[in-house]
Each structure stands twice: as C-alpha cells, then as structure tokens.
C-alpha cells in the first residue's frame, strides 16, 4: 500500500464533513429520511494502521455524540 500522506489535512476535512451531519438540516423531523448514510473510512485507510482506524472512529463517535445532543435538544425520538 502507498504511504498515506497529508493525514492532518485529511482528518481535519473529514471532521468538518462529519460535523455537518449534526446540523439542523439533517435533524429536522419534517424532512423525509431515506436511509442515507456515510462511512467515515470509505477509502479503507484504517486497514493499514490501528492508529488511523482509531482516528476515524474518534471522528465518527464525536459526530454521533453531536447528533445525539441535537436530537435531545429538539426532543426527537431516535
């Protein structure tokens, strides 16, 4: 496998992308849900290193926690 360069920028952009999932547009109860989902490690970089896998999991977990907090604020069942 090729060496993974630009990790800092990659993870910063990935974190910004996943923070947008907890935005009000994704949590609006009146919007139809179509089972759309996203994978934090779509490219499979986490298969090369445990450290990289943990970084992907950390970003996914923080996005889920943000989403749970926004749902609790709006009192939406999930």
Q: Any overview of this molecule?
A:
The protein is mainly alpha-helical. It is built from three helices and no strands. The chain has helices at residues 7-19, 24-27, 50-74. The longest helix is centred in the last third of the chain and has 25 residues, at 50-74. It is elongated and about 45 Å long. The N and C termini lie far apart (40 Å).
Short structural description:
It contains three helices and no strands. It has helices spanning 7-19, 24-27, 50-74.
Give the CA-based shape: elongated
Beta-strand share of residues:
under 5%
DSSP summary, beta strand count: 0
Mean pLDDT: 77
Largest sheet: none
Secondary structure class reads mainly alpha
Spatial extent as radius of gyration: 15 Å
Low-confidence stretches: none
């Amino acid at each position: 496998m090729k060496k993974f360069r630009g990790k800092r920028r990659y993870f910063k952009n990935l974190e910004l992308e996943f923070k947008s999932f907890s935005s009000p547009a994704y949590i609006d109860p009146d919007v139809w849900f179509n089972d759309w989902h996203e994978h934090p490690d779509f490219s499979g970089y986490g298969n090369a290193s445990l450290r990289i896998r943990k970084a992907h999991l950390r970003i996914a977990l923080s996005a889920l926690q943000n989403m749970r907090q926004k749902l609790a604020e709006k009192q939406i069942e999930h």
